[in-house]
Every structure is written in C-alpha cells, then in structure tokens.
Design brief:
By secondary structure, the chain is mostly beta strands. The chain has helices at about 10-15, 210-215; strands at about 1-5, 15-20, 35, 60-65, 75-85, 90-95, 100-105, 115, 130-135, 140-145, 145, 155, 165-170, 175, 185, 190-195, 270-275.
C-alpha cells in the first residue's frame, strides 16, 4: 500500500492524498452470498430522533458479513482474495475452507492471497493470522480482533492499523495494553488473532476537501459560537465574541473541557490503568 499525492492543480487537490492498496485482488467482485443491503439511519433511532449528530448522506454501500467469531476450530482456511470494504477502513479477506465454505474476515497486515490461516482452542503455532485463546499466546505479542467475553466475537482492535499488546497473564486474566494506553483485564479464554490490522497508513490520508468527507456520510460540524442563542449556549452576540461564560458547554449545557465523559460501568474494575488524555 502507498499514499498517493496529487499535483496542486486546484486548491482542494493541493492538500489531497489517497491510499492505494496494491495487495487487493484486482477485478474481484464481492461475494453476493455474504453481502446484504444496508439501510441508512443517518444517526437516528427507531423514533426518528437524531441521537448521533453530523451523520447522513454519503455513497450507497453494501454490507459484507464479517465472521468475527471464527469458530471453525482446527480447520485450515486459505485466503483466496483481499477486498476493499466500504464499511470499514481496513481490508477484508475472503477465506475458503476445505468443504468450499467461504467467509469474510478482517485482513491482517502482511497476509497475502494463498496464505493459510487457522483458528483453534488449543496451543498452536504463533503465526500471523492464526487465532487462539489469550492463554496460549506469548507475552509481548501484537494481537487484534480480541474478544471481551469468550465466544462473543471480536470487539477490540478491529480498525485499520490497530493492535493490542498482550502484557501478562495472571489469575485467569490477561493484561492488554490498548492503543489508547489503557491497560485492561480480559479473561484468558478470550480469543485473539496474531498480528496487526491491515491498512496501517490509513491515518496518513489527507481528505483535501469537504466533498470527500460528505461522501463518507459525515456532515459538517458547526461551531456553537456561530449559532443563535436558542440553538446553543455559546450562541448570540455581535462579531467575533467569546463564549461569554466561565467554561465551555455542550449543546445540552454540560461541561465541555476538563471533565471526564466516560460513564461508570461495572467493567471499570477491570481497568488497571486509565487511557492517556
């Protein structure tokens, strides 16, 4: 993969770059049996109310069904294609088992067409793309697609270039160092995949213009200062004015800076070290 920079023929092109992945299988169409239609929600709940702002529009997408569990144990599978997925920033791999059954998985960095991967509950060889329980993985190993509960399916480290470091295993729990710096305890029976998620250069992309962001389904974010008083606590005033209060607020009047926003959950007891601010 590589980052392509455009010549500055126009103002947007001056700051635009795209990611070109040479490892993807050319002229490979998606597997129709593993694809479903994706209805756009635009950040709205079942009542039609906006619960997530700045969502809507974007290009039409077809969702690929990803196998996050990979519970066909001790059955080798071969990677037959590496494909682009419009619903995520990493590549996906189409694998086929001996009985010709196919499925999509998150592609790891360094995996190529023709490679063989395997998922097991026993202690097997430590190799890129292999999936096994945390208790059978050596300390200091990079992993991704990590489960929070055994058999639940991968929940952690699934985006482009992401990975978790297994630090230690003690008293039935594994200590995982998250990309944010947080150290969390996870049951040692949870499964994880060896390696790192593909497309690590995704974070280097410069979108260049607002139009490319709209194509991704992200709408503009307007400053509170630019709104009217009825729309935001920072609104109103003449000209370039300050927020007019001792501290910045959100749209709903809560503190916006210097206040932790994480909700208290029972899983807080599994966090040994909080993330970096």
């Amino acid at each position: 993969m590589a980052i392509k920079l455009y010549k500055p023929t126009t103002n947007p092109r001056r700051h635009t770059s795209v990611l070109i992945n040479y490892d993807l299988t050319k002229n490979k169409k998606r597997e129709k049996r593993l694809s479903i239609a994706l209805n756009k929600l635009s950040g709205r709940n079942h009542q039609g109310k906006i619960t997530v702002r700045h969502r809507g529009g974007g290009a039409k997408k077809i969702y690929r069904l990803i196998d996050f569990k990979q519970q066909k144990f001790d059955q080798p599978a071969q990677i037959i294609a590496l494909e682009y997925d419009p619903n995520r920033n990493c590549s996906i791999a189409l694998i086929a088992y001996a009985n010709h059954e196919k499925s999509y998985i998150i592609a790891g960095d360094g995996l190529k067409v023709g490679d063989t991967i395997i998922s097991s509950q026993n202690k097997i060889e430590i190799k890129n793309g292999y999936r096994l329980p945390l208790k059978h993985i050596p300390q200091g190993q990079m992993i991704y697609n990590v489960e929070l509960e055994p058999g639940q399916g991968a929940k952690i480290a699934r985006s482009a270039g992401n990975m978790v470091i297994l630090q230690n295993i003690d008293h039935g729990f594994a200590q995982l160092k998250m990309p944010s710096g947080e150290i969390r305890l996870v049951k040692e029976d949870c499964a994880a995949t060896i390696g790192q998620v593909s497309n690590p250069d995704y974070k280097l992309i410069r979108w260049g213009k607002a139009g490319r962001t709209r194509h991704r389904g992200i709408k503009p974010t307007v400053r509170g200062k630019a709104m009217n008083p009825v729309d935001h606590p920072h609104g109103g005033g003449e000209g370039r004015h300050p927020v007019g209060m001792p501290y910045p607020k959100t749209l709903w009047g809560k503190h916006a800076l210097g206040v932790p926003t994480r909700k208290k959950r029972w899983t807080d007891q599994l966090i040994l070290k909080k993330r970096k601010k």
